[in-house]
Amino acid sequence: MLYPSKLIEDAVNEISKLPGIGKKTALRLALHLLKQEESTTDKLSTALVNLRKESKYCKICHIISDSEDCTCESARKDASILCVVEDTPDVIAIQNTAQFSGYFHVLGGIISPMEGIGPGELNIQSLLDRVKKSSGLIKEVILALSPTMEGDTTSFYIAKKLKPFSIKITTIARGIPIGGELEYTDEITLGRSIVQRLIYDTGND
Amino acid sequence: MLYPSKLIEDAVNEISKLPGIGKKTALRLALHLLKQEESTTDKLSTALVNLRKESKYCKICHIISDSEDCTCESARKDASILCVVEDTPDVIAIQNTAQFSGYFHVLGGIISPMEGIGPGELNIQSLLDRVKKSSGLIKEVILALSPTMEGDTTSFYIAKKLKPFSIKITTIARGIPIGGELEYTDEITLGRSIVQRLIYDTGND
User: Fold this and answer.
1) Which CATH class is domain A6-54?
2) Domain A6-54 identical in fold to domain A77-171
3) What angle do CA B183, B184, B185 make, to 5 degrees?
4) Do A47 and B96 touch (CB under 8 A)?
5) What are the chain A neighbours of B10 within 8 Å (beta carbons)?
6) What is the pLDDT of residues A5-15, one digit of tens each?
């Protein structure tokens, strides 16, 4: 593409390095910024630089945090349940449900031989250390990984490693999403949801 | 949404101010930058700040440029044709066709009473001045605006203003896009393309 100015070309090249953003979208974003106050661009660029430079990862749970000691083990939380997730967006997603009050443990990825990610690249050893160090305080580990080939492999690997601690190992429920149409659900999900059916709760009457 | 850190929250807020980018995409982009080298973020933020701070608009054609004297009137170009467009992306799009070697004139928008943009907000007077000052050098003005209600209104307004100069006023062809299916073309486009049919070129034989 021919750009009318070197400044635009540079900006488009840098913006289009972001995932899912092509040259056309990058140009649209660059022209948008040109039409805004200078402070808009300044704030954006400062926020990005600060994010990259100053973000820390908690030494315990590996969540991204403003400091190396995050609030992951605050007293308000339920110390007996540990939820293992792939990455930070999953922590945010689960927190937003307001249905979980335990601790998190971020793996920083999932086992993927295709991408050359083995158990050693993930925060699995630190998970085992954490469970060990809790000396019985952690009673349950929830494996909250995506129900994909890689997610299932990782869950299986971790579950095996956790077996010696004889704690409760659970996984998030798989089934038909709320609001989903039974007719259009894939066979595997539907099949599983029948095999792993739940007792219907008729309430207290 | 609850974010694990203030730095992420700030970055997500700033990124999601960009058009077409919501909080979820913003979070994805922020987390992507966190996983890249620090230089990636630095280059991106520098390019954006430089773009906004140092971009100039050419005093003649109003294209965004690195300096106030852009190369819009370079000797290589055909000085007799002036192509009027809405904004910079249109210049880039037309340049990329490699089918136009004349000059450009960027309006900086189109007449839109809904958004309170009248002829006074656009670079229309400078277009008339430019045509006048050329003293006959500019022989044709192509109105290359989108075939929308606003685009057509703007074209009509400019054409009326240019009438006294008795130069050729043209507009880009409207018709069925190359590769388009006749069957699925809207009635208005198809109707126009029949009314404004072209002589079939059988080549020189």
Assistant:
1) mainly alpha
2) no
3) 100
4) no
5) 47, 50-51
6) 889 999 999 99
